Each structure stands twice: as structure tokens, then as C-alpha cells.
Model the fold of this input.
Amino acid sequence: MNKLLIALMVFVAGRAFGQTSDSTVQARPADKKWFETFAIRGYVQARYNRLLETNPDLTCEQCDRSWGRNGGILLRRVRIIFFGQLSERVYFYIQPDFASAPSGSNSLQFGQLRDAYFDVGLDKANQFRFRIGQSKIPFGFENMQSSQNRLPLDRNDAINSAFSNERDLGVFFYWAPTAVRQRLARLVKEGLKGSGDYGMLGFGVFNGQTANRPELNNQQHVVARFTYPLVVGRHIIEPSIQAYSGNYVVATDQLSTGVKTNPNRNYLDQRVAATFVLYPQPFGVQAEYNIGRGPEFNPSTGTIENQSLHGGYVLLNYRVHLQKQQFYPFLRAQYYEGGKKHERDARSYSVREAELGVEWQPVSSFELVTMYTLSSRRFEDFQRPNNRQRGGLLRLQAQINF
Done:
């Protein structure tokens, strides 16, 4: 199947390079010097999670490592983004993060690559394009939405459990008419909390071991997504459907001594998800749900098994303008039943969580989020086969944008 998909992508490229268009987007004039073809931007997030904390044993590895006991002030993200249109049909994007923590390390603030890709347009308007390198996988609205724009401090467990850091090495094909590309860009630029431009249609192949990890079985995953932002009166709604399939290998450094696995540690890894977004003008709704199968630890047998998974979330939000300031009060409820393949022993989860908060933007370069989380989490692996924690905490995040 992967070979057929790659052949199709090559065929599309061959056909599309023969196309012409009267319109252009992001074209670089021929007389521009090299240093005029790219720009730099970024953002920094600082957090504190311990206010009104009721249970220091309630933690969330997927959220951030300053949850719970001994957590303190944390730099959650320190991103510097280099990007630019190098020529009419070639665009690049490189994003390192300097708030990473190496696996198993007690140190913080290590540099680690998040994105490094280039887009190759197949027509002058770049309606058809290939994305090559390490980038976000087109699966899930909130996964693709930048944490710079997202309202809750962390992505939901149900969809985000598909891919650690939302990224992998791959080749993706995106298509969208110019009018749709402009609409997708406007949803971010105008503060409507869009996910960015990943085309109306996207499909591709990727390694499947998640970002910054080597391929282990030479069997690439495949993914496909279709979305369409509709204008209905003065509102914009965006329904989407997406799916992926492949085989994931649980690496040896993810296993506890004594845990049992399949002989080759290969596990079927596939999901399908549906998304609905009503952008906040001023009231907004965001909802996603996915089902699938993947590796998950079974506490009763001490074995990692292929098991079903399901879960999703609903986010309600509101946009308030007060002179030049903006406020976004929000409420999110989520649940998830399944494994997290990228955590130790494909940790088994049962999550029930509600979050109530508000984002305040006094100026475009500064944001402050205050959010109260009420959570019930069962997260079990070979070292902790019986572990359910409940509690609440008040979380704060300050963010600068530059």
C-alpha cells in the first residue's frame, strides 16, 4: 500500500508540474537577496501548576513534567522559528525547541528539533504541494493547532496520544484552492484559533515512531485527512475527517524489566477521527472524537497487547473584545480509554477531566492563561500496575510572542 501511495504522489507531481496559473501566493521576486527571503519569529511559555493542588501524586507526562510532587516553575516551550519563501515554489520552515528534557534526564532546557521541512509547490499558486521532512502529521485539529494559539494549556489525551509531539519524518501531499488557503490563514491571523494551512486534502507516508526517534521496522504509516472551512452567514464552521494506519514498534528503551511483549514488539497502530469546529465569533465550539487500536499495557497479565481505544473532548469558548484587549473564557471536558504507545510500557490510561479557564491578551505580544483542572486519571504500567489518582489544581501560564 505504501508503494502504491508513493507512486501516486510521483504521478501527481509529474502532472502538476505541467500546470500553469495566473495567480501566485507567497512568491519571491527574483531580485530579492537571500537574507530577504526568510523571517524569524517565536514564543516562550512559562508555567506554574502547584496552586490549590489537592493531590501531589496526580501527574501527567503528556501534559508537562511540572505537574505534581516537586514541580516548580517550568519553561514549557522556548521556540524560535525560521521560515521563508525561497522561490516561487519552494518554502522552508525550521523550528527548534529549547525547553526539552532528554528521556531519563533530570536536566531541562535542551535544544531539540521540532520541525524541519520544505514545501515544494507543483503550480504557481502552490495549491498543490509536497511537504518533505519532519513536520506535523495531518491528524486531529488540536494536534495541528499551534500551542501558541491553543486555549487549554495542553492538548487532549484522546487525540494527542496518537503521536508524541504531533510530528514525524515523512512526505505529505496537500491540496487546497487559493481561496481556502487564504481562509485558513485568516483564521489564525485574526485570532480565531485556527489550526493553520494543512490543505483541504492531505495524505502521505511517515515513519510512525514519532518525532526524533529512528524507524524500527521499515514499514511506513499512511495517513489521510479531508477538511473544509465553510462560511455560514457571519460564522465559519470546519468539519474534518482523518485516519491513519501502520505498525508501531515498542522500543526497548520504553520497556520495564519483566514486561512481556509480542516477539518482534510490533503492534497494529490505526485510528480514525472526526472533528467539528465553530470558530468563536463570538461563541465557539470545538469537538473531536477518535477510535482505533494500538499497543496498551494489561495490568492483569503484565503484557503489552493490541487493544481498542476511544475518546475525545468538547471545548466551549467565547471571544470578548474590550478596547484593544481580548479575553477567551473556555471550558473543556475530555475522556480517554486506551494506551499511550510512546510512554513506558505503552502505559494504560483511563482519563476523565474538566478544565475551566480564561486567556487574556492585553497586547498581541503577551498572553496570560489561568485554568483550573479537575482530573481523575488511571495510568498504569509494569512498575505501577494499580495507579488511579484524583485531584484538582490551578494552573498559570505566561506567554510572549515575537
Remarks:
- DSSP finds four helices and 18 strands in the chain.
- The radius of gyration is 21 Å.
- Residues 144 and 153 are 15 Å apart (CA to CA).
- The helical segments are 2-16, 141-144, 157-160, 178-189.
